[in-house]
Design a protein that fits this description.
This protein is mainly α and 94 residues long. It has a domain of 63 residues. The protein has three helices and no strands. This is Na+/H+ antiporter, subunit MnhC.
């Protein structure tokens, strides 16, 4: 039914979701979100390769998307740190 690449991608998404749901540390939440996005990108690259796109096109697209996600992540963590001086998510709740 599913091949190995699809199962690996889906497991990365599930592991990321579990990490987001089970921690209070912003950095660990971000790492969980990264695992989820990488699993999604892996599924996307698999879908693109099945559609006939060249490897260069797939790598270029995924490189741009990954760079944008990384910059957004670092920016979010820095803004959170400068505002609250902690990386605990419960500090934001009041």
């Amino acid at each position: 039914m599913f091949d190995a690449l699809t199962l690996i991608s889906l497991s990365m998404v599930l592991v990321g979701l579990a990490a987001v749901a089970s921690t209070r540390n912003v950095v660990k939440v971000i790492l969980g979100l990264q695992a989820m996005s990488l699993g999604g990108l892996l599924l996307l690259s698999y879908a693109f390769s099945e559609s006939g796109l060249s490897a260069r096109d797939i790598v270029l697209l995924l490189s741009v998307v990954t760079a944008v996600v990384e910059v957004s992540t670092v920016t979010a963590v820095l803004l959170y740190w400068f505002r609250l001086r902690t990386l605990d998510t419960r500090a934001a709740g009041g």
